[in-house]
Write a structure and sequence with these properties.
The complex is a heterodimer. Chain A is mostly helical. Chain A has one domain: Cytochrome C Oxidase, Chain A (Up-down Bundle). Helix content of chain A is 59%, strand content 1%. The radius of gyration of chain A is 24 Å and the shape is globular. Chain A starts with a strand and ends in a 55-residue tail after the last helix. In chain A, 57% of the residues are buried. The N terminus and C terminus of chain A are likely disordered. Chain B is of the alpha+beta class. In chain B, 32% of the residues lie in helices and 21% in strands. Chain B contains 6 helices and 10 strands, in the order H-H-H-E-E-E-H-E-E-E-E-E-E-E-H-H. In chain B, a hairpin with a 2-residue loop joins strand 1 and strand 2. In chain B, helix 2 packs antiparallel against helix 3. The longest helix of chain B is centred in the N-terminal third of the chain and has 34 residues. Chain B is elongated, with a radius of gyration of 25 Å. The N and C termini of chain B lie far apart (53 Å). Classes of the chains: A mainly alpha, B alpha+beta. The structure holds protoporphyrin IX containing FE and copper (II) ion (2 copies). The site of protoporphyrin IX containing FE (HEM) has 26 residues of chain A, from helix 2, helix 3, helix 12 and helix 14.
Chain lengths: 569, 284
């Protein structure tokens, strides 16, 4: 088999002189893999912090009358919990972390287009996050006006104190970080694709990141501008959003939702991309309806219909497949079911009369948590279980992964199903306390128990990570029989990612390389026309890149040049 | 199918929703119930397909399945069906919304409702009467048939906050204002909520069909005591309403009404009478 492109790691020789210490290396790195991991680890730490805040709130809500938390503390907690989860976790986890790591690999590029800008994005993100959190250490506490920071509640009259300013400045910094990453990804995808990798041979994950990046360029500057105006109102005596000075508070809401509507897709599309990587690999099938998918991602801008259509792409991918239930696949199915419920209740909320009846109640809280947990938690951590072997060259234990999944899955439904009912009974959101005698206590208690199950499920993941460091099981280059280019190189990939590339004739170059006798059926031809194929292994005579079982002794990512592509000679 | 259900009348299960005690909210509960049924149908079909394919196609051998990727008729089918469903939902939505937002030319009663941090003020402009209460307190705990609110409400906590008294069976025009931040005017059993926005005047009509006490609450985060910004609607038969409104002290009010600032409101609205509720969740 011929290898079309050979790339030598640039500067591979200059590098090995004075080895700087690990910390200096980390501080000065421009390697997209290190930056991607920094993003991932930072955002997961923030997820845990925010999760602890969530559990504290759930304790307070577990019974009518509360558990003694003050309204000020409660308001600070849900504001910071929501802001961290949306601005500092869900977005950066997928877009800053996984996209940064995986997209250059999937397009066969040595790095991002602008490696230094990439590093700068990360440092902006980290400093923005710390800035926002510092609010807790001020005498008046953190911001307490909700993650949307509606004017005039967020004005200096109703929310004095530095916590609100730190919130605004934190958003300002992380907003820039997102825009820079978007520019970087777009350029990488347009200009650094490997020879033969046309746009319609890109994996869906990369496609979705491209669409997300475009949406970020549309949406985030508006958020940044709104924050700037808010800051000016608070400190420079302007009156954009204050009635008394002739301003219009509703202007803030309009500006905010000009950002907020695309933000919904900015948070969802990267995770759809992860699912669309996992399902085909574990079903041993190509993505069903591949060519339509990028188009529908674009269309999501307008309506919810395409999201419904995606479900059938996903089901069609599993249909008549050979599905193996490894941890990432379980998470993907958890995503499908959770997102189905969250999506359907979302369609209900899109109908204004129903929205009138349930607006700002726990119905909405349950809806957006089901959507956000399906994506950021089920798809997101499913992505971690999927790509961890690639990133570190070692496996996570499947048993512990499954324990994580089932605890999370039960907790997820137990937490949110009661909240739909609470919302329909009229329990408003963002209340630190609710009256007794209305029949809300038992449902809230169930929800709190569920929340603690969700919290506990992550202990399995921490143990799993710990075990994988103490007793590594080498993963090899391609433990799942993966499809896209990242599975072609070594685990972890060498400094500039690829030593050799396979020929690229479809969106599954690694699969095509390993299974030359099982290409995608051409258009218009149906399943019956292809004989069933036996044997997963590589064609005779090759030894590297093909699928390996995790237990097989593997090189586990050693020197650059030991990559899989060598087998192609 | 949805149409049949909607025309079929009130026999649908409520799915935990309120049936709606105003003439406006009845259509809304129908729309809600119809939508839930449609959502359940779609959800059950899609969910079963997911679970069925997940279980049916478990890997049993080392075979590589057929690598099909496209099936044009199927793809067209699952594109068209969601579009049809959404269009149908949209149609019913527009129909219902028009009914809800419909304001009549001359309502029987005008009430100006002003939200502030953290309480409500109701101006009965035709009668020069107003009621004003802060947080959990009800300055005028009127209930049905000459009883107090707590005596006639299903649970005492339905009576938290100031009571918005209105007659049954007549169109009442609410003019909703806010003095400071954004508040939310929400009566669960009316299936209705609307923002009270500073600098914006919102008008809508209620026609309550059944006498009763209806718990209500501010739903838009409005600062520290958002959770305690309760109120309730007291819907009285016309005679009782008239007795109440004429028995109240007429107040010399201006058209604009007093505009308490955030700083004042904490002090200025200390209620004259102690709260009439048995259990208050106030942390004050
Ligand atoms: C461990 C799982 C979680 C639990 C138990 C939880 C719990 C809560 C609670 C109790 C609230 C306050 C509700 C209220 O008073 O209105 C809340 C609000 C919120 N949560 Fe979560 N949450 C969880 C995960 C997440 C995740 C993963 C995200 C996003 C990716 C998220 C995003 C939000 C947002 C945006 C708000 C609204 C904040 C606001 O009202 O300003 N949550 N959550
Ligand atoms: Cu309020
Ligand atoms: Cu409020």
């Amino acid at each position: 088999m011929t290898v079309l492109a050979e790339r030598l790691p640039a500067g591979a020789h200059a590098e090995h002189h004075d080895e700087p210490t690990l910390i200096v290396k980390w501080l000065t790195t421009t390697d997209h893999k290190v930056i991607g991991l920094s993003y991932t680890i930072t955002s997961v730490i923030l997820f845990f912090l925010s999760g602890i805040m969530a559990l504290a709130m759930r304790v307070q809500l577990s019974s009518p009358g509360g558990a003694g938390m003050s309204p000020q503390t409660y308001n600070e907690l849900f504001t910071m919990h929501g802001a961290i989860m949306l601005y500092l976790f869900a977005g950066p986890f997928a877009f800053g972390g996984l996209a940064n790591y995986i997209v250059p690999l999937q397009v066969g590029a040595p790095d991002m287009a602008f490696p230094r800008l990439n590093a700068f994005s990360y440092w902006l993100y980290l400093s923005g996050s710390i800035t926002m959190l510092l609010g807790f250490f001020t005498s008046t506490g953190a911001a307490a006006f909700g993650w949307v920071a509606y004017a005039p509640l967020s004005s200096s009259v109703y929310s004095p104190g530095p916590g609100a300013d730190l919130f605004i400045m934190g958003l300002f910094l992380t907003g820039f970080s997102a825009v820079f990453t978007a520019v970087n990804l777009i350029t990488t995808i347009f200009y650094l694709r490997a020879p033969g990798l046309t746009m319609f041979r890109m994996p869906i994950f990369t496609w979705n990141m491209l669409v997300t990046a475009l949406l970020i360029l549309i949406a985030f500057p508006v958020l940044t501008a709104a924050m700037l105006l808010l800051f000016a109102d608070r400190h420079f005596g302007t009156h954009f959003f204050t009635v008394s000075g002739g301003g219009v508070p509703v202007l803030y809401q309009n500006l905010f939702w000009f950002f907020g509507h695309p933000e919904v897709y900015i948070l969802a599309l990267p995770y759809f991309g992860i699912i669309t990587e996992i399902l085909p690999v574990f079903s041993r099938k190509p993505v069903f309806g591949y060519k339509g998918l990028p188009f529908f991602s674009l269309l999501s801008l307008l309506i919810a219909v395409p999201t419904g259509i995606k479900f059938f792409n996903w089901i069609g991918t599993m249909w008549r497949g050979q599905i193996s239930y490894k941890t990432p696949m379980l998470f993907a199915i958890g995503f499908l079911l959770g997102f189905l419920m969250g999506g359907l209740t979302g369609v209900m909320l899109a109908s204004p009369p129903i929205d009138f009846a349930t607006h700002d109640t726990y119905f909405v809280v349950a809806h957006f948590h089901q959507v956000l947990l399906a994506t950021a938690v089920f798809a997101g951590f499913g992505g971690i279980y999927f790509w961890y072997p690639k990133m570190f060259g070692r496996m996570l234990r499947d048993g512990l992964g499954k324990a994580h999944f089932w605890t999370l899955f039960v907790g997820f439904w137990l937490t949110y199903l009661p909240q739909y009912v609470l919302g329909l009974k009229g329990m408003p959101r963002r209340v630190f306390i609710y009256p007794s005698g209305l029949g809300w206590g038992a449902l809230n208690m169930a929800s709190t128990v569920g929340a603690f199950l969700i919290g506990a499920s992550f202990l399995f993941m921490l143990v799993n990570l710990f075990v994988s460091w103490r007793n590594p099981i080498p993963a090899g280059d391609n433990p799942w029989d993966g499809h896209a280019l990242e599975w072609f190189t070594s685990s972890p990939p060498p400094h500039h990612n690829f030593v050799k590339l396979p020929p690229i004739r479809s969106e599954r170059p690694t699969w095509d390389f390993n299974h030359p006798d099982a290409p995608v059926l051409p258009h218009g031809r149906h399943a019956k026309e292809q004989p069933a194929l036996v044997g997963v292994g590589s064609p005779a005579g090759t030894s590297g890149g093909p699928a390996q079982t995790p237990s097989a002794p593997a090189d586990g990512g050693t020197a650059p040049g030991d990559g899989s592509g060598e087998t192609g000679h | 199918m949805l149409l049949g259900i909607l025309l079929g009348g009130c026999k649908l299960p409520t799915f935990y929703g309120y049936r709606g005690v105003t003439s406006q909210s009845h259509d809304e509960s129908l729309l809600y119930e119809g939508t839930v049924i449609a959502a359940i149908v779609v959800g059950v079909i899609t969910g079963s397909l997911i679970i069925w394919s997940a279980l049916r196609y478990r890997r049993k051998s080392d075979t590589i399945p057929r690598q099909f990727q496209y099936h044009i008729p199927l793809e067209i089918f699952y594109t068209v069906v969601p579009i049809v469903i959404v269009l149908a939902l949209f149609g019913f939505t527009v129909y219902t919304e028009n009914k809800i937002d419909n304001v009549v030319p001359n309502p029987a009663l005008n009430i100006r409702v002003t939200a502030f941090q953290w309480g409500w003020r109701y101006d009965y402009t035709n009668y020069h009467v107003f009621v004003e209460g802060v947080r959990t307190e009800d300055p005028d705990p009127v209930g049905l048939d000459g009883k107090t609110c707590v005596q006639s409400a299903p649970t005492p906590n339905d009576c938290l906050g100031p009571g918005l008294v209105m007659p049954v069976g007549e169109t009442v025009r609410i003019t909703l204002l806010s003095n400071d931040v954004v508040h939310g005017f929400y009566v669960p059993q009316f299936n209705f909520s609307r923002y009270a926005l500073p600098g914006v005047v919102n008008r809508f009509d209620f026609n309550v069909q059944k006498p009763g006490i209806y718990r209500a609450q501010c739903t838009q985060l409005c600062g520290l005591y958002h959770a305690e910004m309760f109120f309730h609607v007291v819907a009285l038969p016309r005679a009782q309403f008239l007795a109440w409104v004429h028995g109240s002290q007429p107040q010399p009010i201006t058209d604009a009404g007093p505009i308490p600032t955030a700083a004042q409101s904490a002090k200025a609205f200390v209620p004259a009478a102690p709260a009439a509720t048995t259990k208050s969740s106030a942390a004050s």
